[in-house]
Amino acid sequence: MFVPSTTPRSPLTERARYGGGRVMFIVIIAAFFQLPVFDLRSDGSDNFVTSLLMAGNYCIPEVTILFHNKLLRGNRTVKVDCESFAAFDSPNMPPLAVVGIDINVSFRQIFRPRSIEKFTVHLQLDENVSLLRIFPNITADTVRTFLQPPIRGVVLQTYGAGNLPGNRSDIMAELKAATDRGVIVFNCSQCFKGSVTAVYQTGHVLSQVGVISGNDITPEAALAKLSYVLSKDDWDLSTKRMMLGANLRGEMSSGPPKPPRKNRAADEWDLVDAVARTLLHVNGSQELTALGGILFPAMLGNAVVRSDLNKLDELKGFGADFSAQNADGRTALHLACALGDVRIVRYLLLNGASVHIKDRFDRTPLIEAVENDRKDVVALLRRCGAHLNSPAKHVAQQLCNSAAKGNVLRLKSYASAGADPTTAKDMYGRTPLHAAALTNQLDVAEYLLSLQTTVSTLGLAEITPPIDLMGATPIDVARAAGHTSLADMLHRHFYGDERLQNHHKKPEPPQPDDL
């Protein structure tokens, strides 16, 4: 989504920090401009073109803001300057990408999907939320007013690391009364940088009265998150409180990477562990970072081949990206789908592996599963939103090849992935049924005809024989090839027994009167 400004210092840029936090719960790259795009000094053209390049060439499944050569996570972004071209910043998180002569993407920072389900949009947000900023002489009456119905949630902006004045027991009492009656209070810092931590006594007290720590979340993202969580009517209050304190969309830090298991003996650490531990601390040198991009895919592939979930878990703790591609563009998910290990596939999907990445042969993980007849893996990928994105003619050619070889299982695999073997046509207009008729594949023909019968029963289409570019039906092809039994079966399916008998009936010899 691109949002160009039309006036100097457009209100769109003023609201961008709120928009970035709000749409995170609804893949978007928003391009904002300080000056109109038609202004001679506008930053709009650079932001717009760079946004197109980022959206079209990099797999970053997030809501992001592209501004002044930085790609920022939308729900971590704040506006820090209303007069500079460097108007936005992400104080508690480095940019996802920095644009110069080269585009350097920090793939480790990308927050990837963590569930096995298709993309959905949650449109409903609760409006009964407010923002309360603590200041030294705020009264208990003011706090009480902010917490009264219909308010269901409050973002509390406190001092420093999440503190209130130590002598304000009256405010603490109001907060406790509100949380006791079900109002959710979400604590975030008034500072741009840093996080809410229980360093001081008042921080502990706030936690004891039921105030939830927002860690390093921005106030804008906190409001959006609170509105989203409160709108989930299928969650009870304890679930809402738990989800509010969890990192849902990368809006707050969730701690350091999970360390590897500590119960392993020293001699159990292998070369892979040693290399991974070294790569964990790589931040500066571009050469070492590039080395990680080469080695991590190889180590992940090795763990997938050995079905080693523990090794995958350790590599994740060392910072491995499960969507990282090797020299052929293949990911660990490509390999796991080809091997058909459902446990490994499910683990990779739950830890951010993308189902949409193509290798240099234009093959996705779904194609790997289909062409290795991994039925359970195909179903799992489809639940996660995978689809056949090859050209229709290419899929049709593969279906025709499978039909010609009598490979019913492959046809079923393609059908489970979303292809329609009954209507797919190759570049010559031939369907899989034409291919089966040409090579006398009775089993394939019976399967394809059963699909047509199902479609017709549902009222989705009439049963008529398909015709290729030469005007030939599968019946014509079978008869021309001398496959009489198959031709009769097809004729009976499309036209019934009566027309079949008429088709076989020999013409009577002409009578003398007719001569």
Automatic annotation (TrEMBL):
<dbReference type="InterPro" id="IPR027474">
    <property type="entry name" value="L-asparaginase_N"/>
</dbReference>
<feature type="repeat" description="ANK">
    <location>
        <begin position="428"/>
        <end position="460"/>
    </location>
</feature>
<dbReference type="InterPro" id="IPR040919">
    <property type="entry name" value="Asparaginase_C"/>
</dbReference>
<keyword id="KW-0472">Membrane</keyword>
<feature type="transmembrane region" description="Helical">
    <location>
        <begin position="21"/>
        <end position="38"/>
    </location>
</feature>
<dbReference type="InterPro" id="IPR027473">
    <property type="entry name" value="L-asparaginase_C"/>
</dbReference>
<keyword id="KW-0378">Hydrolase</keyword>
<dbReference type="GO" id="GO:0009066">
    <property type="term" value="P:aspartate family amino acid metabolic process"/>
</dbReference>
<feature type="domain" description="L-asparaginase N-terminal">
    <location>
        <begin position="34"/>
        <end position="106"/>
    </location>
</feature>
<keyword id="KW-0040">ANK repeat</keyword>
<keyword id="KW-0812">Transmembrane</keyword>
<dbReference type="GO" id="GO:0004067">
    <property type="term" value="F:asparaginase activity"/>
</dbReference>
<feature type="repeat" description="ANK">
    <location>
        <begin position="328"/>
        <end position="360"/>
    </location>
</feature>
<dbReference type="InterPro" id="IPR002110">
    <property type="entry name" value="Ankyrin_rpt"/>
</dbReference>
<keyword id="KW-1133">Transmembrane helix</keyword>
<feature type="domain" description="Asparaginase/glutaminase C-terminal">
    <location>
        <begin position="128"/>
        <end position="235"/>
    </location>
</feature>
<dbReference type="Pfam" id="PF00710">
    <property type="entry name" value="Asparaginase"/>
</dbReference>
<dbReference type="InterPro" id="IPR036770">
    <property type="entry name" value="Ankyrin_rpt-contain_sf"/>
</dbReference>
<dbReference type="Pfam" id="PF12796">
    <property type="entry name" value="Ank_2"/>
</dbReference>
<dbReference type="InterPro" id="IPR036152">
    <property type="entry name" value="Asp/glu_Ase-like_sf"/>
</dbReference>
<dbReference type="InterPro" id="IPR006034">
    <property type="entry name" value="Asparaginase/glutaminase-like"/>
</dbReference>
<dbReference type="InterPro" id="IPR037152">
    <property type="entry name" value="L-asparaginase_N_sf"/>
</dbReference>
<dbReference type="Pfam" id="PF13637">
    <property type="entry name" value="Ank_4"/>
</dbReference>
<protein>
    <recommendedName>
        <fullName>asparaginase</fullName>
        <ecNumber>3.5.1.1</ecNumber>
    </recommendedName>
</protein>
<dbReference type="Pfam" id="PF17763">
    <property type="entry name" value="Asparaginase_C"/>
</dbReference>
